[in-house]
Every structure is written in structure tokens, then in C-alpha cells.
Amino acid sequence: MLRLALRPCIISSVVQDSIRILQAQGYKVTKPRRQVLEALEGAQKPVSPYDVQSTLRKQGKYLNHVTIYRILDLFCRLNLAHKVLSSGGFVKCGLGNEAGCHRFMVCRCCGVLREFVDEELCKKESKSAVNLGFHTEYHLSESSGLCSECYRKRFGE
Amino acid sequence: MLRLALRPCIISSVVQDSIRILQAQGYKVTKPRRQVLEALEGAQKPVSPYDVQSTLRKQGKYLNHVTIYRILDLFCRLNLAHKVLSSGGFVKCGLGNEAGCHRFMVCRCCGVLREFVDEELCKKESKSAVNLGFHTEYHLSESSGLCSECYRKRFGE
DNA sequence: AGGCTAATTGCAACAATGTTGCGTTTAGCA
DNA sequence: TGCTAAACGCAACATTGTTGCAATTAGCCT
Ligand SMILES: [Mn+2]
Ligand SMILES: [Mn+2]
Ligand SMILES: [Zn+2]
Ligand SMILES: [Zn+2]
Known about the structure:
Structural class of chain A: alpha+beta
Number of helices of chain A: 6
Order of helices and strands of chain A: HHHHEEEEHEH
CATH topology of the largest domain in chain A: Arc Repressor Mutant, subunit A
Strand content of chain A: 15-25%
Largest sheet of chain A: 3 strands, mixed
Largest interface: A-B, 80 and 80 residues
Distance between the termini of chain A: 34 Å
Oligomer: homodimer
Number of strands of chain A: 5
Bound molecules: manganese (II) ion, zinc ion
Helix content of chain A: 40-55%
């Protein structure tokens, strides 16, 4: 029923919601999975797998790091968690706009990355943040998809 | 003259441009730095420090990995290169919109991260990409700056 | 051109992060 | 209350990133 690829991520999900989704998808609800869910729920900022481990350890709960990696992988596949960033590499600057606004497109097929400029987008993005009480100093945006070439290869002209 | 914090990144910079900037800022133009610049110039996708190392090794050029880390750090400080992503951690999903559009604000001071939704922004972003021949399937956007609380602490009401 | 010196690099040792294969445990179910 | 596939723990390993210090070198000054 719930088609994974199209489902938006969980709205301010509490642990219980996530557990229901695990079950709905036929995954077991294990103690380690509950514990990682709680650690994520409790965190105010992004946490690495080892962060999760030490958080839990402080509560007297011992999970092997391999287990945490596997659980976080699963949660990401189920849209219960995000990895906050995508690629990890360096890239030369492309066409420059304002310092502090960097906007990329990455082709998921061939991997080419292109930086582009959109002043209007930049302003809208900041304004949108202001409405939420956030003072923006820096944008980083990645769109992933297909470059024109890879798109052509798949779907023709 | 050239104030670093305000300078936009290099426009389709060739190695020579970057070298001029190194000199202008009083940094030495060394063989390793030239080589890393050339490796970045030559790459079609983001590259890790170790990627740079092996690329160079294939050309019979041997740089210690520590050197490469330090050079890439410098280049980023000088806006000669980007790290393509920011934090590296996991975060729970916040308010969900379309699957495939994730938009965050991160406070550079306290680290809180908040996901938010902006349909209009999402459409504009895709349209902007289409104009460049790119078919977008997924957005990831991070704005960094100050959350309302940290902003107040610094600049009052 | 040759020497001086602060900046930069190389090296060694280490720390942190991430992966794989396989034996053991356990959640969910009959 | 057992059965079994799924999930976990462990060991061993691979990759990535960091630190302190000795050796080298780019840029400058004779
Ligand atoms: Mn840029
Ligand atoms: Mn999301
Ligand atoms: Zn492509
Ligand atoms: Zn803050």
C-alpha cells in the first residue's frame, strides 16, 4: 500500500509513528531499533552513527557500531531519517554569484556537477527562512536528477 | 583589497586564476598546490582528498595525504574549492512535503537544524534547472545562519 | 646567482570512521 | 512454547582524517 518512493518523510514523527512504519513494511521492531529511534528523537542536531553509540552508552545501553550503521541505513531507506548531506567531495567553484550562495545540480547517473546562479531563488530562500525566524547567511543547495545528456539517453529527444 | 569574506567564488576559474589569488593573499605557489589545482580542474565530479592523491599518483606525482588535506583546507578558506556538503550527520525528518524535497536551516551557532517546506521554492528551483537542461528529481537545500534565539542573543530584539 | 628563513611539505604514529563475513540471538508467528 | 528467518554482535580489516616534528623549499634579500 504505502509506496515508499512516493511517501513524504514523517511529519514530526514520534518514535511510535516510526515503529508503526517498520511494522507496516514487515521489519521487526527490535530493541536496538527502538533505542536508535529514541536517540534520534532526543538529539537536537544531526548525529553520526558513533554519536548515537555514545549517547546510548551514557544511558547504559550498548550497541555495536555495525548494528547502528545498519539501522541508520534502514531508516534512511524508509525515510525515517536523512543523511544531511549527499556526496562528500570537493569541487571547483563554477560561475559565481553572491558569496554565500552556492547552488548545484548533480546528475545521479553520470555524476557531473554543475554550479549555477539564481538571484531570485536566493532571495526567496532567505525570505522563506525569515518567516520562520531564521537569519540566513549562507545557502547550499543540491538538486539531483538527470543532466540533459543522460536524460536523452533514457527517454530520447 | 580583495576582501575574502565578500568575494564570490571564482568564475570558471582556470588554474592560473587560482594561482594569482594564492599570491595576492601571500601564500606560496608550491608544486603540490599546483598539482592539486590541476587535479581539481581535471575532475568532472567532486573528489575526495584520497581521490586527488590517486589521480596524481597515476600521473607519477606523489603527494602525502596529509599535504592534500591541508591544501584542500586552504583552498576552501580561499574560496577556491567547496566541500560539497556540510555536516555529515543524521537527523529525523521534520515536517514533510513532497518526497524528494528536503530543505533545512542550520544554526551555525547552536547547531539546531530545522526542516521546512516551501512548495513555491521547490517549483522555482526545478524550473531554474530545466532552463539549464537539467531534469530534477530531488532537492537538498541547507541554509546556514542564525536561529531566532541565537540572533537575539547577539543583536538583541 | 647564492644564501636566509618562514612557510610548507613529508613522515610516522595514531585516531576515528566505515565495511564484511559469519556465528549467535531474538522477534514474530504457528 | 518451540521454529525460523531476520537481525544482531563480534572480529578482523579497510578507509579516512589528525597531530607533532623534522626536512625541504619558495620567495626574498643581498
Ligand atoms: Mn560557488
Ligand atoms: Mn524530509
Ligand atoms: Zn548525466
Ligand atoms: Zn542557534
